[in-house]
Amino acid sequence: MSQLNPRQAEVSGAFTRFRIMAIYCGVMSSLLWFVHVPTHYLIFQSSHHLFAWIALVHGFTYPIYVLAAFHYCLKARKSLWYTIGFILAGTLPIASFIAERRAVKEFKSLA
Questions:
Q1: Which residues cross the membrane (predicted)?
Q2: Is the pLDDT of residue 63 over 90?
Q3: Global pTM?
Q4: Which of 22, 31, 56, 99 has the fewest other C-beta atoms within 10 Å?
Q5: φ/ψ of residue 16, rounded to 5
Q6: Which residues lie below 8 Å from residue 36, measured CB to CB, with a gap of 6+?
Q7: Cβ–Cβ < 8 Å for 27, 105
Q8: Residue scoring higher pLDDT (43 or 108)
Q9: What secondary structure letter does DSSP report for 2?
C-alpha cells in the first residue's frame, strides 16, 4: 500500500466508511427500485411480500449511509451543497455509485 499524505490520512477512515456505505446503499437502492417496487405495484402483486425485506433493510441502513456521507464531507471540508448532494445520492439507484467514484477521485487528488 502506498504512503498516505497527512491530508489523506486525516480523511481515510471516513472515506473508507463512506465507500462501503455508498456501494451498499447503491445495491440496496437498486434492489428497491428494480425488484421491490415493480413486484409490489406492477408484476406480482400477490407475491410482493417475498421482497418486503428489501425496503425494510434499505430503510434501516440508509441513515447509516447519511451519517457516513456527512462525516466524510465534514472531514474532507466539503461545502454544504456538496454534502447535501452526497446525502441525496443514496436515494437514487445509480447516484451513490457515482458519488463513490467522485469521492475516490477526489481522495486520490488530496494534497
A1: 21-44, 50-73, 80-99
A2: yes
A3: 0.84
A4: 56
A5: -65, -45
A6: 48, 51, 52, 54, 55
A7: no
A8: 108
A9: P
> Which triple of cell numbers denotes residue 72?
466524510
Q: Position of cell 434492489?
A: 31
Contact (Cβ atoms closer than 8 angstroms) between residue 17 and residue 61: no
Q: Which three cell numbers stand for residue 79?
A: 461545502
Backbone angles phi, psi at 104, to 5 degrees: -60, -45
Place of cell 466508511: 17
DSSP code per residue over 63-95 = HHHHHHHHHHHHHTT--HHHHHHHHHGGGSTTH
Q: Which three cell numbers stand for residue 100?
A: 463513490
Q: Pull the grid cell for residue 53.
A: 425485506
pLDDT in tens, 29-45: 998 888 888 887 777 66
H or E element, residue 7: helix 6-31
